[in-house]
Amino acid sequence: TKQTLDNIKASDSDINAFINLDEDGAIKAAQAVDQAGIEPDNVLSGIPSAIKDNILTNGFKTTAASKMLENFKPIFDATVMKKLNAKQTITVGKTNMDEFAMGGSTENSAFKKTHNPWNLSKVPGGSSGGSAAAVAAGQIIFALGSDTGGSIRQPAAYNGIVGLKPTYGRVSRWGLIAFGSSLDQIGPLTRNVLDNAYVLNAIAGHDEHDLTSSDKEVPDYTKSIKDGVKGMKIALPKEYLAEGIDQDVKDAILKAAETYKQLGATVEEVSLPHTKYGVAAYYILASSEASSNLQRFDGIRYGYRSPEAKNLEEVYVKSRSEGFGDEVKRRIMLGTFSLSAGAFDAYFQKAAKVRTLMIEDFKKVFQDYDLILGPTAPTTAFGIGEDISDPVTMYLNDAMTIPVNLAGLPAMSLPAGFSDGMPIGMQLIGRPFDESTIYKAGYAFE
Ligand code: GLN
After folding, report:
1. How far is CA 401 from the centre of its chain?
2. Where is the active site (predicted)?
3. 3-state secondary structure 270-284
4. Residue 21 confidence (pLDDT) above 90
């Protein structure tokens, strides 16, 4: 743990993966593990890790990269933290992210910009950009992120690492600062597929504090991971290789398809016809949920209160105007509009219908196929500052990750090659609660 902390202090001035390092807490936790003894059957015992800063850590600052929560210290642990602590992992700090997880480059953090360790002039992706960069740079063994529309998988892709968004309900959201409650899931970011399965083993499972968490039994995700893909049926949706996808990315995915064929799987083209409506539907639904979830930041109950406020109305208005960044305000306005009486049918209701159609698309494909293969993102990591002034370009980046959240499916991004020295990510999407098949196929490819 000491070495890990020294290494982070030496490397993080370039990368900026961390918002706050918990040196005392980490050393104390490590000493406790020393005292208790490493558990021989527990591979996570004593392993240093980092946690996205929208996951509550008892007594240690959790900011969601927002001025609104700059000095917020939670008084309880998120369920995933309780589970990790029980496994004796060592949390060394909290990682940078887009404010309230809204963004795809970590440039929306109120505090700092994280740099991609493969090329410091590039973004690490987002919103879990700090978690992904910390793993890719070798600062820690694993990190947790959250994924509402791609925020684990896209940064994993940009950093050449493995990131899994579990099935909706597989991992408790208790203690995750809510963005879009029907979409959010916490998941692991790691250097390889096996490590990822170990971490999911630790954090998955039912939680009475989260009524959307499933009571389905949690399998051992490492158990059949080495079984190979012989006989597996993999679908390649044509919409995921269409216009707007970089040629190098396309080539890498087609090459992966060939690899799977050589390994004994069948790969066939399919169609997910409603893919093109996903981004539009998502930004209405996610923003609507966000506008509701973020009402609690009112200057009274949590976090920032404007020192200028002279009456109740000003406490609300000034605290929120000063505490939230531009992207968060954009989402609150879009969401509030979509939920307003005059717009509800035309926008929210319509988006909800599109969501149902997309779920049906996936259901149809999964009648015949075990997995869906495609790119995680249309390009590799872009330059810092390149897209930030153009929200729509930024939103389109998520075209292939968003459908997975809308349908509540599990999906993993893993490295599939390079373009101009930057990692390309490929995505494997599975049936609900079938993370095991994703891991098996990921392990076979790696
Ligand atoms: N980039 C998407 C957004 O800005 C996804 C974010 C996420 O998954 N948290 O909403």
Report:
1. 10
2. 52, 127, 151
3. ECCHHHHHHHHHHHH
4. yes
* 101 CA from centroid of ligand 1 (Å): 6
Q: Count Cβ neighbours within 10 Å for each residue of 291-307 and write b for 16 or more, e otherwise.
A: bbbbeebbbeeebbbbe
Amino acid occupying residue 335: G
Those residues whose C-beta lies under 8 Å from the C-beta of residue 223, and which sit 6 or more positions away, are 436
Ligand 1 environment, Cβ below 6 A: 101-104, 127, 147-151, 179, 286, 398
Query: Does the reported pTM lie above 0.95?
Result: yes
> Would you say 275 and 240 are in contact if contact means Cβ atoms under 8 Å apart?
yes
Token pair for 200: 């999911």
**Angle at Cα 112 formed by Cα 73 and Cα 127, nearest 5°?**
80
CA 299 to chain centre: 28
Q: What is the pLDDT of residue 243?
A: 81
Give the closest residue (by CA) to ligand 1 atom 5.
Answer: 149
Q: What residues act catalytically?
A: 52, 127, 151
Take residue 233 and report the two structure tokens written for it: 């049926």
Burial track 16-49 (b if 16+ CB lie within 10 A, e otherwise): bbbbbbbeebbeebbeebeeeeeeeebbbbbbbb
DSSP E strands, 179-295: 185-190, 233-237, 266-270
Q: Which two tokens stand for residue 359?
A: 């779920």
pLDDT tens per residue, range 391-426: 877 888 899 999 999 999 999 999 999 999 999 999
- pLDDT tens, 249-284? 999 999 999 999 999 999 999 999 999 999 999 999
Given the CA of residue 405, which atom of ligand 1 is nearest to it? 8
Judge if the upstream peptide bond of residue 127 is cis by omega within 30 degrees of 0: yes
Please compute the mean of the pLDDT values over residues 101-110 and round it to a whole number. Answer: 97
- SS3 for 161? coil
Write down the residue that tokens 């009456």 correspond to.
Answer: 311
What DSSP letter does each residue of 10-44 carry, written as one string?
Answer: HHHHHH--EEEE-HHHHHHHHHHHHHH---TT-TT
